[in-house]
Write a structure and sequence with these properties.
With 146 residues, the protein is mostly helical. It contains 8 helices and no strands. α2 packs antiparallel against α5. The protein is globular. The N and C termini lie far apart (37 Å).
Length: 146
Amino acid sequence: MFADFLKRLTAPQPDPLADADARLALTALLVRVARADAHYDASEQARIDRIAANRFGLSPFEASKLRGKAEALEAEAPDTVRFTRAIKDAVPYEDRIGVIEALWQVVLADGQREAEEDALLRLVSNLLGVSDRDSALARQRVDSAN
């Protein structure tokens, strides 16, 4: 279903993503992090929907529909290393910092920081080219908002 999209995304030198494609890829990354601890629950799904609605100006229905597509894409996407590197090449740095902040929101949605989620988020931050400092600041912003 997403083979052409993934092929374009993981090309050696991908073109910048169109807005709709970037939304889908970034939401799929949120899903991947939420699934990292093998407990993908309703609170994480609701958080992803809220993030998508706020970041992309979507209605609750549209955000839920986007999450559904992102869940399917995430299931078909290559390993996290290739997937995040592809996003890094196709998305501007400022947007990637916003993604890290959104990822922290998902990780903290269930009120627990699991070791698997922390490890995956460190890896994802690095692969997205976001500095440890910017990732820590993103986490602090999320912590202070909760």
